[in-house]
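Q: Could you write out the predicted structure for this multi-component system? I'm mainly interested in how the pieces pack against one another.
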Amino acid sequence: MSKKASVTVLGSPEEVQRRWQEEGLRPQYIESHDAAVTFRRAPGDRGTEVHVDLEQTAPGGKAGEMLMKLTAKEPLAKVKDDLRRFKAQFETGVIPRSEGSPEGELAERKLKQRPAQPLKQDELEKAGV
Amino acid sequence: MRATVWSGRNSVSVVDVPDPTILNDRDAIVRITSTAICGSDLHLYDGYVPKMKRGDILGHEFMGEVVEKGKGVGNLEVGDRVVVPFPIACGDCWACKHELYSVCENSNPNSGMAEKMFGHATAGIFGYSHLTGGYAGGQAEYARVPFADVGPIKVDEDLSDEQLLFLSDIFPTGWFGADLCDIEGGETIAVFGAGPVGQFAIASAILMGAERVIAIDQYEYRLQMAVNKAGATDVVDFSVDADIVEQLKELTGGRGPDAVIDAVGMEAAHGHGAVHAMDRVKQANRLESDRGHALRDAILACRPGGIVSVIGVYGGLLDKFPSGAFMNKGLQLRAGQAHVQKYLKPLYEHIRNGDIDPSFVVTHRLGLDQASNAYETFKHKQDECVKVVLKP
């Protein structure tokens, strides 16, 4: 199973690298797992590719990996969440939120969507809005 | 507030839900004055689009008044009258910068889900399954509009809701379908489906300078509208003769249309013989999501070297794609959800100038609480239904 994930962000490599370290934008999961991150200038006007190589194996080996996948908590999915959030915040200034996924891109939400209707007050607080 | 929610296959209900609130600085809340049911809502209603959830608020065609806005929305004021485009687009990513708004890279917070289905995520869409973000829709009293600084267009008070509402989707979608055909003047364009999108594809092709536009449908009242209102020059009624390809060849001296627009999508009604029977069985058992007679016939009918433009919605996989005809005839296949934001201003100008009055498609006007009846009437084409407008 691939342990690599990448995203292309619309900005120069210098700017993308700088903001990668910025408070509020710094990808939590990737940084806490000390994964190898490389920044490459993308061809043409496409911006910067951010590549993450997650060296560590999933806890519990094969069976563990299966379980992790079913609960959508496997590390690679978390890495992808981080990359998507970083890209969105870098490019748009906000974390895009829907009523189905009020926290923004979140692996755990893939299997547990809210109905697409407005949130109640307690749900708003829980989602960190 | 009151809102139309999906409550399982072939069922919607109007229920009380919480009022929407601002979730982001770039959000606005719109009090909806008019909203419509789209043909593509029927794909959700019928259960052909995956990742629907009971309680999802439907609707992606709506307009109204801004009642609240986040601090990042500098271009709108509370009280502004706006039409909201159905794709949600950030305006900042590479796709948006290249006016490819319906494939915005940031507006779908369920991109992980979408990547599994399509390889890549596409833009968020209001009320259009969790695959396109899980956004609450606009068949309701209020809606939250994300990236409100990019999408909504401010409109003047002297034009009616019904003249403007279709800027949200079907007019730009029809226009986009025609735009993909590279019309320069003098072409013959065939349009599969004389539903609301097909009507606007026909009208747009005429406005762009096509010389002949052939409307294809099985309902006479829709073909009449295509000729009398949208400007179609010819019709093919496949309830009379099911061999559409031969009829199109006959109408074009054997050449075939220069471009063919598929404004039908995944629930094509025509088709015959063994392939049709296989489609029905596979689709009934959910082995095939998309019933593709319109697309297959479009490819077979199109003249060699021509363009097939797909604006009818497909959701998954299609069997029996005529790859031989497609490749050997050297066709171009173009498609997409319309990049509505790109077309809003020019199409608003066309309405302002009186080049087109989009309200011609409206056949039914109902209160929001009548949504359940409205879906049934629209789905079964009862009472010569073409387009339903709901008033919250």
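A: Regarding packing and overall arrangement: Residues 4-94 of chain A form one domain.
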